[in-house]
Amino acid sequence: MPRIEVLVIGGGATGVGVARDLALRGVRTMLLERSDFCSGSSGANHGMLHSGARYALSDAQSARDCASENEILRKVAGFCIQDCGGVFVRTALTPEGHKESFLKALKDLGIANQPLSGSELRVREPRLAPEIDEGIAVRDASIDPFALVLANVRSARQAGAEIRNYAEVRSFKLGRGGVEEVLARDATKGETIRIKPELVVNASGASAGHISSMVGLSLPLLVDKGSMLVFDGRLVNGLVNHLRPAADGDVLVPSHSATIAGTTSTQHMRPGKATATKEESKRLLHEAALLVPAVKEARMVRAFAGLRHLRSDSGLGRGASRSHQVIDHRDQGIDNMVSLTGGKLTTYRLMAERCADLVCQKLGVRSRGITAREPLGPSPDLRQFPRLSSWSRLRMSSRYGPLATEVAKHCLRSERGLEVACSCEYVLRGELDFFAKDEDVRGLDDLMRRTRAGMGYCQGGLCVMKLASVLHERKKCDAREVIGTFLEERAKGIEMVLEGPQLRQEVLKMYLLAGTYGLRKQGGEG
Amino acid sequence: MRELDPLEIDVLVLGGGAAGLMAASVLADEGKSVAVVSRSATATALSTGCISFVRSDVFRERGAKVDLETLAHSVHPFSDLFDGASSTLEEIILDMSAFLVRALVDEGLEMSADVFTYHRLLTNLGTSYNCSLAPLHTAAGELDELERSDLVFLGFRGHPDLDPDLAAHIVSSDRRLKSPSSHWAKLKTFKGRTELTVTEAAEILRSEAAKEEVAKVISDLSEENVAVPPLFRLAHFEKGMRWLRKATGRNVFELVTPLSLPGQRLQEGLEKHAASEGCILLQDRELTGLRFEGNRVVEATVVSRTREQRMRFNALIVASGDVIGGGLSLEGLEVRDPLSAFKVGKVKKSRVGVRGIELKALETVETGLLAGNDTRLISKEGVHMQNAFGAGSVLAGFSYPTGVGLGGSLITAWVAARTAKEVA
User: Do B166 and A416 lie within an 8 Å CB cutoff?
Assistant: First the structure.
């Protein structure tokens, strides 16, 4: 095998973006992700494609970057973007003069916008609080982070990169110039991976500090926790932003069959897994109701939290800069390692490109990045499959993008491919089977991330058996164990939103799976 | 709203699930005039249609008979409930079961009748399931018997209730059973449809051609025991299953299956029986108010869409179901009586919880209506009611899996009816 030139650590949006960018420039690249792709911060956000307006007053650079990346991603990754638009609405909490300075900032930055009257607003968003009578439309959109990341993985592989999930970097061997060898381990396969890269890119997000400490570096990094609340159903047509200085819970984002209210902001000390608290859920519900009172009647599906990693020089919490930084560790004595900090999903491509520029400069590679114009894959056209329902075609196109045609074919070809496996999200058995045979997929969560099966309002209560069945067929997983583990995990994730109708549903599910079927973690039966 | 003429009856039963219908049938059998008011689908219709009197974790030793002491202590909080009652718990269970089995046979649903010998059966997911009373064609799949010969799970493409591969895989983790096989059948009579509901499938299976086709599939299998998903609705169940067994010479049995036809059959059987006893079944109705006189409830207001009716009675039985079924309302984590009439609380000795699931919110189901040991309800003000009774999962401690599901509900309904008889 030819020598790996660059090892990228981290399979979030930025990491896969760097790997793809480098591979497209002809650099022999390998990427290692400790868990599954998009399972960290890249997956735990509300899926906003920023117009830049949100940062217009606080962070001009981020605003500019978002505005230009927004247009680029619409061209190269249109399949996973829903151009639902966004509005900033003025409420009683909007400070005097804030709207005027906001509009001026948008103008100065060249961010497209359109002031809306109360009645114009109401046409776009009928569920807005009745007292809201003024707003500004911007080019915000909703983006599917999983679809985006998986398309990057696929494109990078096609360009020759080796991309692996479930491979955790365990140690570095340092030499004169810096990193000489990296040891990683694929735990499920029990396999040790040794790589001698010319250069290492640390794109491990909230774990970047941990990775750099393994080579004896301290990386100035702040970790900020943001919690979000998911409601069943699309309560807004586009993004609804609260026009005021940054505060908790000031945006509602429509996403697939749900609406996500976000976010809170608290400093987080450990890079480990973050969870939303009951207090945060309550606060988000309260804030969201100021914009769209209907959320109070809506069903809360779950609450979740993501970690934002911010540049340490960026200030604290809300006021923190969302801009990114590419750090060359040469000055600290490690000449062949580069770390990435900060940034956002909207600007992942730009950040990856800047990183790849630096990497190429260090390696003496001359080729230029092409990700700003090279589409992430062919636009799917599923009209050739009239046997699929129009809803399935639409769903597959936006969910799988460049892969959609293959997935559709598999559904039609495989014996039980057209059975509906998850009725909340309308996922076909063939879709599950398509991904279950993929080597990247190890367990239930991986399958859920790729297909959205089990992510609807029942949170996997009824389709878990079907997921387990497919996994057993393809992977010989112990279905009883899979279901038991799943139940236990779910119980943790939904505890804080469990009340009212959601509690009813959950208890019914427990009656059924744990009571009637006797399925629980340690096997055994009652 | 149009007001209908008031209705005068001996007993008003609120809730048309297993508990309400059982209480209504018993009282009607005693010659009382009874009306049952119900709102919508019941938990009974979603159940497995199998009935237990003992918590499943009591079933440890196979083949053992359950003695009364085990029973009384396992079926929380029966032991409290029946202190000082005129009959022993054993008598109550025997009498009630005899009544139930007779009632269901009359309506075309034959149950296994030995209540103190429990069955170890298989679910449609391949897990094992213990219960006291089961339909005969389900009880035919006794695990003890299956251990001695071979078993095949037979699924039908397009039928939602059984994935035979998954069931066979899950059952094979039970070492007592020989590795069962699985078979997918494609029925021509399903016409290649991939998404039938159980009801649609049952409709197709009414035809002789479809039954013949199923029999042919079974005859082509080599196994002695054939596990199938629920195939028939109540009207065709006994005949259909008997015919399949006879035509194929195999032990064809139905897997224990929740959210499907078995629960609907039990619901339908109990409804038909209550109707044949002369009960007035009023569906799609809601009870909106109660009038009290001292320690008695004397009148209720019942609403159905645009009509309102007052009902006067001598006894009221509240069998409206738990928080999950909607008999009790839930605001946040707080459980309330939607009628704002009776006292809500938790039972003392809590045994709640499904082993292995840590979910604090599950404790909510411990809360329900509080009652004296003869199921007499207590008013919100703390007055012990003379003529209002609780039955089934609306009672604190009887919500599945706090209680034991249908068995506990039926026992309380029996006691409520017996006591109500005296005042009605």
Answer: no
Of B128, B166, B357, the CB nearest to A479: B166
Q: In angstroms, rounded to a whole number, what is the distance separating the alpha carbons of residues B416 and A383?
A: 63
CA-CA distance, A463 to B207, in Å (whole number)? Answer: 31
Question: What one-letter code names the amino acid at B373?
Answer: N
Asked whether the beta carbons of B36 and B267 are under 8 A apart, the reply is no
Q: Which amino acid is at A229?
A: L
Cα angle A271-A273-A279, degrees, rounded to a multiple of 5: 110
Nearest residue on chain A to B52, alpha-carbon basis: A516
A48: β partners: A142
Interface contacts A/B by beta carbons within 8 Å: 111
pLDDT digits (tens, 9 = 90+) for B226-282: 999 999 999 999 999 999 999 999 999 999 999 999 999 999 999 999 999 999 999
Q: Is A168 exposed, middle or buried (0-12, 13-18, 19+ CB in 10 A)?
A: middle
| Chain B residues whose C-beta sits inside 8 Å of any chain A C-beta | 48, 56-57, 59, 123, 125, 127-130, 157, 163, 165-166, 169-170, 173, 194-195, 256, 258-259, 323-324, 330-333, 354-362, 364-365, 400-401
- B44-80 tens-digit pLDDT: 999 999 998 766 555 544 344 545 445 545 554 444 5
**Contact across the interface for B361 and A499, Cβ inside 8 Å:** yes
> Residue ranges per domain, chain B?
2-108+265-423, 135-255
**Taking CB atoms and an 8 Å cutoff, what residues of chain A touch B57?**
526
- Cβ-defined contact of B129 to A516 (cutoff 8 Å): yes
Smallest CA-to-CA distance from A14 within A43, A35, A53 is with: A43
Residue carrying structure tokens 């495989």: A414
Which residue, among A86, A193, A184, A68, has the nearest Cα to A138 in the 3D structure? A86
Cis peptide leading into B401, omega within 30 of 0? Answer: yes
CATH number of B2-108+265-423: 3.50.50.60
Q: Are residues A510 and B169, on separate chains, in Cβ contact within 8 Å? A: no
* Tokens, residue A401: 């993008």
Are A513 and A461 contacting, i.e. CB atoms less than 8 angstroms apart?
Answer: yes
Other C-beta atoms within 10 Å of A112: how many? 14
CA distance B397 to B34: 27
The Cα A50–Cα B42 span in angstroms is: 48
Tell me which architecture the domain covering B135-255 has in CATH.
Answer: 3-Layer(aba) Sandwich (3.40)
